[in-house]
Structure formats: C-alpha cells, structure tokens
Design goal:
The protein has 258 residues and is α/β, with parallel strands linked by helices. It is built from seven helices and 13 strands. 28% of the residues lie in helices and 22% in strands. Helix 2 crosses helix 3 and helix 3 crosses helix 4. The radius of gyration is 17 Å and the shape is globular.
C-alpha cells in the first residue's frame, strides 16, 4: 500500500561553514516514517525552487520543523532588533502562506518549535523575541552544554485545557516536555487557540479553531524519541492518521476499504 507523503520543511544550512545546503534533522524523518507511517520528503523552503501550490499538489501533509533562524519580525509588524536573532526570509515566504492555505483547505500540518511560531504569525499573531527576559518567565532555551540526550531531556510540565483536544489526545491534562526555544507567542493570531501552557504561562500547544483539518502545533520538540515517548507518539500517530485520510480523499478511495 502506498504511504501518504509528508513534506518536511528544511532549514538553510552551511556545510563546513561554506557550502549552502537544505538541512533537516534525521529525527524528523524517523518520526514521520516510523510513527506517523508516512513517506518523509525534505522540502527546500525557498521560493526560487518551489511554490506553495507545488507543495499543496504534491504532499498530503506538512511537518513545520524547528530551526535556529526565527520568523522575521516584519512578518508581524515589528522592527528587527538584535534580540530577534538570525532569520530565514526564504522559509518565511514559503511557510506562512502554506499554513494559511492548509487551514483553508483542511490539509494537515504539525508545527514544531519554529513551526509553532510560524503558525501563529501566519494567522496574524506576534512573538516575543526572548522569553527569558520577561518577568517571571523561565529560560526555555536549549542548555548550552552537555550531550544531545541532555539537551533534549524533559525540563518542564505543560498543562492542557481540561477537555481540550490535547487533553483528549494525550489522555492526561499535564505532561512533561523538553524545551529548546528562545522566542514564544506574544499575542495569539486569529482563530489560534492556546490549549497548553508551561508553568510560567508560556504558550506551548495550539490549534486553529474551526479548521477542517489537523492543525495541532507544539512549542517543544516531540520528534525526539517519538516512537518511545508517551507524549510524542500519540501526537505523531494522530498527525499520520490525518495525513492518511487526506491522501485517501485525494485518491478518491475509502480508508476502510483500502
């Protein structure tokens, strides 16, 4: 049986500090393939090579990945400052209209970290440039030292809205997650529902109200050990089911009869 295809948004990268490349973490591909049950393909997130319509026509769903560059503040009406860090304007120009198109069409996507922030900005929301500078907030950034296991270790709880979609999906109102981000939601975009918060009030889980398709997005990194983690696994499984449904509809078949 043909697997549905998930487009994984890449990040601009320099190999050996000089060779331009489109990069994607292997753990993203692993989570899509082994847990979501889909075929993972990396997307060069640059309008020189792909258009939003190309992507909508080719893929059944999208993984909006994390990445070091941030969404440019001009995309939400604020001036650029040093605190905003590095940017990837090519990715901005692909992912923001892609999110809006997916919401309208009902085509599934799962947003992770930067992808979570992209969803909010695409829907008209804004971001804080540095969460740790806000009064009463913890440092949500990746630990600067240690092994990769230590960088992705569980660091804080996320509490979901009682009876909300994340609570129902996880079977628990509170879960433990990793934390590897500097920015975060300032004002939620139109129809963006904040369904989970860290203990310091930082938004950690969102979905789009009234959207016909899967729009769950999280601020943490569920791709890390997704097949074994009790929080990551149901999220990727639900995303995979939504992608499979989209693929079946596109091909004009019933999943029950397939």
């Amino acid at each position: 049986m043909t697997r549905p295809i998930v487009g994984i948004i890449s990040n601009s990268h320099l190999l050996n500090d000089q060779y331009p490349a489109h990069a994607g973490g292997a753990m993203n591909s692993e989570a899509v393939s082994e847990v979501a049950g889909a075929l993972p393909l990396l997307i060069p997130a640059d309008p020189r090579f792909v258009s939003v319509q190309d992507l909508l026509d080719t893929f059944d769903g999208f993984l909006l990945t994390g990445g070091r560059p941030n969404v440019h503040p001009e995309e939400y009406g604020e001036p650029e400052t040093e605190a905003h860090g590095a940017f990837d304007r090519a990715r901005d120009s692909i992912t923001l209209p892609l999110v809006r198109a997916c919401v309208e069409r009902g085509q599934p996507f799962l947003g992770i970290c930067r992808g979570f922030q992209e969803v909010n900005v695409a829907m008209g929301g804004t971001l804080y440039p540095e969460i740790r500078d806000l009064p009463g907030r913890m440092n949500h950034r990746m630990p600067p030292d240690g092994t990769i296991e230590e960088k992705f270790e569980l660091r804080h709880a996320v509490r979901f809205t009682e009876g909300g979609p994340f609570h129902r999906l996880m079977g628990a109102q509170e879960v433990m997650t990793n934390s590897l981000h500097g920015q975060g939601i300032k004002c939620a975009g139109t129809r963006v529902v904040i369904d989970g918060h860290a203990p310091d009030g930082t938004p950690e889980a969102i979905y789009i109200e009234g959207a016909p398709g899967f729009t769950m997005s999280v601020q943490w990194h569920p791709e890390w050990h997704a097949s074994a983690d009790p929080v990551s696994r149901p999220l990727f499984q639900a995303f995979g089911a939504a992608v499979a449904d989209w693929s079946a509809i596109k091909r004009g078949i019933s999943r029950k009869s397939a």
